[in-house]
Amino acid sequence: MGKALTSSAVIAILIAAGFLSRRLGILRSGDERVLNGYVYHFALPAYFLLGLADTALDADLSRFLVVGVAPIAVFISALWLIRLAFRLRRDPFYLIAVASVFGSLAFFGLPFVELVLGREEPVGLAVALIAAVSPITVGMVLVLLELYGLEGISVGKAVWDVMRKFSRNPLIVSLALGIALSLFGFRIPFFARRTLELLGDTAAPMALFSLGVFLYGRRHRGILAAAGLASIRLVLLPAITLGFAWLLGIRGLEREVAVLMNGTPMAVNMIVLSARYRFFEEEIATMILVSTVGAIITMNLWSLLL
Question: Which residues does 164 contact at the CB level (< 8 Å), separation at least 6?
């Protein structure tokens, strides 16, 4: 528990440093785009590529990945059935669905797992889980936003548009390349490995720092409603994950990584998507703030429980 609290203090300090850099005028409005661009296009792809290339993708890993993916599928299926049964209105359905599945696995989950559980095996498991979960959740969110933003568009066209975007997404490309390197047993040359290591080492601190920069100056209202929605990711989803881990006999480190990664706050990138699709912009900004602050508490509690 002491290590988790210490690691959480480090996370809070890095986020606060980014926030204060805006408050003190060291960085200006728009600078967060540069920081996020670096993390998104260079640091995280290097981190993912190296992490997956060094991870043995065998049958033993499959149950762990099921524990990470199944809770999201179960929740969305239940939400869809609730919408059909109770005729849930369109806007609440879309907001709840997006808020529940699009977690900050890379920007928050990876740094937390690395600081609390260690770098070698925990990070390998976390990256493998991202490779399994992210294409599903990101694709699902983009399809929902396409359907929300363009009335009358078919599901087929929305899926096709998302697939085209995936082919140019640096995170998806790096995940796919890392999986290929692992499956074929390709050893990355030393100079390339060292380059990837240097870039990847900056991913966690830069992601947290840029999160603090992003949080400054946003309008926030409806805190209680945001907290209620955030509890889906921070409490309900990890609880379902814990249940699946028990059913499938997943214990120890694998169980803890799965629960923590499914208990991360809402993804920061959602603010960009919400603006692009005119999707509950103020509500999303508030949810990112509330879920980020709340995750520092809830993820420590989950770590203590496990």
Answer: none
d(CA 188, CA 194): 9
State how far the Cα of 57 lies from the Cα of 124, in Å rounded to an integer: 10
Number of helical (H) and strand (E) elements in the chain, helices listed first:
16, 0
Contact call for residues 128 and 57 (beta carbons, < 8 A): yes
Kindly report the pTM of this predicted structure. 0.80
Query: For 244-278, how does the pLDDT look when each residue is reduced to its tens digit (9 = 90+)?
Result: 999 988 888 999 999 999 999 988 777 767 776 77
Query: What is the spatial distance between Cα 122 and Cα 301, in angstroms, rounded to a whole number?
Result: 18
- What residue type is assigned to position 149 of the chain? G
Domains annotated for the chain, with CATH where assigned, are 2-305 (1.20.1530.20)
d(CA 171, CA 203): 12
Between 73-77, 237-241, 280-284, the lowest mean confidence (pLDDT) is in 280-284
Using only C-alpha atoms, the chain has a radius of gyration, in whole angstroms, of 19
Q: How far apart are CA 156 and CA 159, in angstroms?
A: 5
Which SS3 state, helix, strand or coil, does residue 293 take?
helix
For the segment 115-147, what is each residue's pLDDT rounded down to a tens digit? 888 877 888 888 888 878 877 787 778 777 777
Distance separating alpha carbons of residues 153 and 212, to the nearest angstrom: 36
The Cβ of residue 286 has, within 10 Å, a number of other Cβ atoms equal to 22
**Residue in 62, 68, 59 with CA at minimum distance from that of residue 258:** 68
